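Example 3.2
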Amino acid sequence: MKAVVWHGKRDVRVDTVDDPVIQEPTDAVIKVTSTGICGSDLHLYEVLAPFMTEGDIVGHEPMGIVEEVGSAVTRLKPGDRVVVPFQIACGACFMCNQNLQTQCETTQVRSEGMGAALFGYTRLYGQVPGGQAEYLRVPQAQYGPITVPAGPPDDRFVYLSDVLPTSWQAVEYAAVPQGGTLLVLGLGPIGDMSCRIALHHGVGRVIGVDPVPERRDRAMARGVEVLDLEDQDTLVARIRDMTGGRGPDSVIDAVGMEAHGSPIARAMQQMTGVLPDAWAAKLMETAGIDRLAALNLAIETVRRGGTISIIGVYGGMTDPLPMMTLFDKQIQIRMGQANVRRWVDDILPLLTDADPLGVSGFASHRLPLTAAPAAYQQFQEKKDGFIKVLLQP
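Structure, written as tokens:
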């Protein structure tokens, strides 16, 4: 089959690789019909390279048609249409029963001290072959895949794999009070969808910040007040002016380690690219290599007693946080990878012809799988309106 394969920093290619096969009774194999490029895939393209191995198949936002199931998979059959969550969870362990599927005790990558295995996302998360491919082996298929109806185009459902539940959790964790104000930092796919969900939930006011004009325009068209990512002091002053001098009730950090910010942290990120992989991995595991501009902006702008919801991915272990400010302002923080199956029942009723979240037009680009290398580059460079890419094998 054809698959998107990692070969090095900023080097992904479409290669011919072995077809996946059933390995465990709980496996399924699906024929992929659509698969997204996620903002966090760009971390593999850039700063998480030390945790990758040449030949890794990437991608974690697939949907498709079931081709084959293992003997223990009784809820699926060949021909079923399914969306595959980005994390691999068993549905039966203590953590899954707490609706913390990203902490699944069956698939936890204990050798790396990490939570549940993820598709296509480094050795830290199990080095499981990903979904930017023509076919995908799905472990724990007795629980994970989400069955969706035949008929509507893939765009209606594919975002159940990641974008929708991740954004839904970001808004839930933000805990915006009734009639309150939410600030969303970063208007890429997750920030954009978080704004849409917040407005659908009836949040009184949503303000979005992003340096890319096309992203701001998309959000503004749906009723979001938008700001450019200007000088931080000026931006903080503007946000306070917009919120009566107090700051927003809640802030979603949808940026993570790709944030614009500290030149020192940027230099450390770049330095990992020239070190031997073992050294670079150790530096990333033990040092503060994130660029924390977005998180620091969230801390500075949120009102006293407010809430910060972190959904952008961070990677450093000793990143400095302003603990005195966090404590003094009595800020609440919630964060973590989205627990996909936790939110599916809430989201599915919205994926109707009415399409209140605008999923049908959410993709900025639909491309063949063979276009993946160029799409990664353009997405990383934020060029030509690349905001959300769907690949179709």
